[in-house]
Amino acid sequence: MAATQRIAAGVTVAAVCAAALAGCASEDGDARRGAHGSKEGAHGVRQPGAAAPGSVMRPIGDGSTAYTGAQPHQPRAERLKPGQRPPQFVVFSWDGAGEDGQKLFSRFRKVARENRAAMTFFLSGVYMLPEEKRELYRPPGHARGSSDIGFNDERGIRATVGQLRKAWLEGNEIGTHFNGHFCGEGGGGEWSVEDWKDEIAQAKSFVKEWRTNTGLEKVSPLPFDYDKELVGGRTPCLEGRKNFVRAARQLGFRYDTSGVDEQVWPEKKKGLWDLSMQLVPVPDRDFETLTMDYNFMVNQSGTTTQGDPDRHEYWGDQMRDGLLKGFKRAYRGNRAPLIIGNHFESWNGGAYMRAVEETVERVCTKPEVRCVSFRQLADWLDAQDPRTLDKLRTLKVGESPRKGWGSFLSGRPAPAPKGVPGAPAAKK
């Protein structure tokens, strides 16, 4: 089974989360929990890639990864036409993605397939490293072989490799949540640019060398070149973003999602798309919180991950309805992409897993909604006219164009309605 994950302790982390302004990617609990089955299915929506996986197979390094052609099921990024209303993008993403006894990775692959969605899975590199090889990890500012989350074992790595392979072939993105998940003192907030580069290099190496580190020679390789696949990530506890962005830009990353923002259109900062998570309403409360399961939990049961069982259903409904409120004000308003982050955890009886699943089911099949990965969103943003994006960024949270999208993005004033001064002359 995958290694036990532990919640990050410390007054600072708890306080920041309680203030609902940080996405504290902290994990706890025994990995041996209830399983959910996974059944293969077809999206039937997204456009296929240029090459069928398996038609090309070029092993990379020790064969842990391989080039197999263009990733399948990728949408074509098209520029908005003048006056065209933008689609409503929604990104569902997962910190510390790995398959353990809960089988939440396979569960949400199935949810994505059944609801025409792609997702981003941020892999923690140490989940690809067996416990007995932990000394291979040299975390910045910490003792060799240390980590604030668990390492893995052969069974857990085999299961995680299988889920990563299938997820990528189904069109999802594999990003990074780095390695040891250090927060607070000695954590990413204190790391230099060179420290972040080293952490990223190690995260890549554990993915590119899992065969050597486990001896699992008969397990099929991951079907992608991770040096090219990896274009973005989310820092643990959203710490150290300033130096991480500098390192990421030098390493060719395209986006970062380690920040907190309102529901407005994103922009490039320091050469990377700032695809921060966002603040959404908390139903029955007079404040907003971050679009992440951990932050809803802290505002409901504090840092206790298994609070009052009688409140679990309500807490799950509260998160789901908060995400739906955020979705609706974007969908009916400025159409800013909605960015959501989560963990594969059964906190408060799995309330937040149910909340996310029900949100996916309710939004991803709506007209003009595209549930995409961060990479796919970055592709679309890069394809747009910069002037169009500048215009979109003038819209405030929940604000729709006063004269409609046709006028707002047409590049010219809309004609006055017929029968009023300035109206087009009637055709004879």
TrEMBL record:
Q: Which GO terms describe its biological process?
A: carbohydrate metabolic process
Transmembrane portions of the chain? none
Low complexity compositional bias: what residue ranges?
A: 411-428
Give me the ranges of the annotated region Disordered: 28-87, 399-428
Ranges of compositional bias, category Basic and acidic residues: 29-43
SUPFAM superfamilies in the cross-refs: Glycoside hydrolase/deacetylase (SSF88713)
Assigned keywords, A-Z? Signal
InterPro entries listed in its UniProt record: CE4, Glyco_hydro/deAcase_b/a-brl
Would you tell me the protein name for this molecule? Secreted protein
Q: In which organism is this protein found? A: Streptomyces minutiscleroticus
